[in-house]
From TrEMBL:
EC id: 2.7.1.-
UniProtKB keywords: ATP-binding, Glycolysis, Kinase, Nucleotide-binding, Transferase
Pathway in which this enzyme or protein is active: Carbohydrate degradation; glycolysis; D-glyceraldehyde 3-phosphate and glycerone phosphate from D-glucose: step 1/4; Carbohydrate metabolism; hexose metabolism
Name the UniProt record assigns to this protein: Phosphotransferase
Ranges for domain Hexokinase C-terminal: 165-396
Annotated Pfam families: Hexokinase_1 (PF00349), Hexokinase_2 (PF03727)
Signal peptide: none
Length: 403
């Protein structure tokens, strides 16, 4: 039996938690991280987990505070599981762009998704966490630092050996895939068998060099202006859960200001950045009734005096924003599938938007068939895949090193 405790620093959106968020704000509120206790026995995976909230102040404060907070949560979790004092191996899912220096060392390249904690960029995040654990007297041995895409690929490949791509469509978006070493010009590591490696594409940054300017809209540009990482992660900002609600709000606001919605009355609530949450968009799309009651209720909360036509327009905006996101993700995947040249392939997927949005998966299926008709592609949802995968990696490493 391998026992792995894992701090999954994945920014997924927990539905119940989101419901508790206050409605109006001037920046997206907080984030979550998840701690999992994973037991592997005879190929079966048994998990216990707990979600911890990260307040915006911690996301944007000092790195020391952020890592202290994670260490405190790990201590609490260990205590609750009766594991106090036990020295456990830890797989750390860190869902941000990193330079991987080794299995248990990765330096943060830049923050994304509303984080800006100071003193972390260019630092080894495993070291920062390990120092925080020492400060808090938490016994943990960081065995692996893993991106969430890699974790998802690993956990899905554990269940389906035809899985070669890991995809996240949650608060942020990114994908990784298996690549032959000969194709990786920058590879200067071990050249022995198996001659392949996982490439974390960090595709959220696609377009930061200006290459997708022709498909960005004024709404995307307005959204970018109110983010902490302006001009960065432009592809991610057109796709992922953190941003779709705000893009929709920008479009609704413009039509209201042009007197094409709500009789030209623009409520104070509608003018607040981030007031239209991505969860609203998902809920509106889940409601297939002709009268659009859910949309109506949300507009009421935003103090927008709507007519039936307004409801129809707002629903159409939500639908256009999520359809565009699904098309863009599939376009990225189509390029990867063509590059890999496989006839059949499974793509492991994790992330709240993919999980909770009613049309995302069907839309991706349709667009995949259009863009790569020659390949048979299966999308495999992986609940907590990013965390489970990091635990698997840590468990294998422990077995190989005999620690
Ligand atoms: C990060 C990636 C991560 C993705 C999904 C992006 O903002 O740069 O490292 O995989 O979010 O969580």
């Amino acid at each position: 039996m391998a026992q792995v405790i894992l701090s999954n620093f994945t920014l997924f959106a927990d539905e119940k938690e989101i419901q508790k968020w206050r409605l109006f704000c001037t920046r997206p509120r907080g984030s979550n991280f998840r701690v999992l206790l994973v037991k592997l026995r005879d190929g079966n995976v048994e998990m216990k987990s707990k979600v911890y909230k990260i307040a915006t102040e911690i996301m944007t404060g000092t790195g020391e505070n952020l890592f202290n907070y994670i260490a405190d949560c790990l201590a609490e979790f260990k205590k609750e599981q009766g594991l106090e004092g036990k020295d456990l191996p830890l797989g750390f899912t860190f869902s941000f762009p990193c330079r991987q220096n080794g299995l248990n060392s990765a330096s943060l390249v830049t923050w994304t998704k509303g984080f800006s904690a100071t003193g972390v960029v260019d630092q080894d995040v495993a070291k920062l966490l390990s120092e925080a654990c020492k400060r808090r007297n938490v016994n943990l041995d960081i065995i692996a630092v893993v991106n969430d895409t890699t974790g998802t690929l690993m956990s899905c490949a554990h269940a389906d050996s035809n899985c070669y791509v890991g995809l996240i469509i949650g608060t942020g978006t990114n994908a990784c895939y298996m690549e032959a070493l000969d194709e990786v010009e920058l590879w200067n590591g071990d050249k022995g068998e198996p001659k392949q490696t996982i490439i974390n594409m960090e595709w959220g940054a696609f377009g930061d060099d200006g290459s997708i300017e022709d498909i960005r809209t004024d709404f995307d540009r307005e959204l970018d202006k109110i983010t902490l990482n302006q001009g960065k992660q432009l592809y991610e900002k057109m796709i992922s859960g953190m941003y779709l609600g705000e893009i929709s709000r920008q479009a609704i606001l413009k039509l209201a200001k042009e007197k094409l919605l709500f009789n030209g009355v623009v409520s104070a609530e509608l003018q607040k950045p981030w007031a239209f949450e991505s969860k609203f968009l998902t809920d509106i799309e889940k409601d297939v009734s002709t009268d659009g009651l859910v949309c109506r209720e949300i507009l009421r909360q935003l103090n927008c005096r709507d007519t039936m036509e307004d409801v129809t327009v707002v629903r159409a905006i939500c639908s256009a924003v999520s359809t565009r996101a699904a098309k863009l993700v599939t376009a990225g995947l189509a390029a990867v599938i063509k590059k890999m040249g496989r006839k059949t392939l499974t793509i492991g997927v994790d992330g709240s938007l993919y999980k909770y949005h009613p049309r995302f998966h069907p839309l991706m299926d349709t667009f995949t068939r259009e863009l790569v008709p020659e390949a048979r592609v299966k999308y495999m949802l992986s609940e907590d895949g990013s965390g489970k995968g990091a635990a698997l990696i840590a468990a294998v490493a422990v077995r190989l090193t005999g620690k």
